[in-house]
Amino acid sequence: MNMFFRYIYKQDIWNNALYDKVENISLGDVISYNQDKRALYDRWQQVGDQAEFKSISLTTTTPMSSRFVQTENTLSFESINVGYEITQKPWLNRAGLSALRFTAYTGEIFRFSTIRRERGIDYPYARSFSLGINANFK
Q1: Is the C-alpha dihedral spanning 19, 23, 28, 34 positive or negative?
Q2: pTM of the shown model
Q3: Pairing of strands 97-113, 128-137
Q4: CA 119, CA 129: separation in Å to the nearest integer?
Q5: Euclidean distance between the first and final Cα of the chain, in Å?
Q6: DSSP string across the chain
Q7: Interval 52-105: pLDDT, tens
Q8: What's the gap between Cα 97 and its chain centre?
C-alpha cells in the first residue's frame, strides 16, 4: 500500500482567479461567461462599504498588485494505491497461472486550503479511480 499526502506551508502565490475572474471583469463577462461568485457578492456595492473588490460597474482595468498575492497553507491527500498478490495456490496451478495480482488506485481524495481558487463548477479536482488485474502465466 502507498499513500501520498502533500502539504504547503506559508507559500505566497498569485491568485489569478481573483485578478481575472473577480476584479477585472465587465457586466458582459458576468452574463456571458462562468464567473467566480465572489465577482457578485464580495465587492463594493454601496457608499461606505468596506469590500475587497471594486464595484462591478467600474470597468477600468485594475493593475497587478500585491493585493492579489495570498499566503497558502494546504493539506491534500493526493493518492492511495493498494495491491495484493496471490502466489503458490493450488487453484492457480489448475488455471495455468503462477501469480495473480489485484491493484486499486484513487487520486485527489481531499484538499484543504486557505485559498479559494476557481477550479470548475462541480468537483473541481480530477478525482480518478482505477482497478487492475495482472495474471502471470506459467
Answers
A1: positive
A2: 0.63
A3: antiparallel
A4: 20
A5: 26
A6: -EEEEEEEEEEEEE-HHHIIIIIS--HHHHHHS---THHHHSB--STT---SB--TT--SPPPP-GGGEEEEEEEEEEEEEEEEEEES-HHHHHTTEEEEEEEEEEEEEEEEESS-----SS--S--EEEEEEEEEE-
A7: 777 766 777 888 888 889 999 999 999 999 999 999 899 998 999 999 999 999
A8: 41
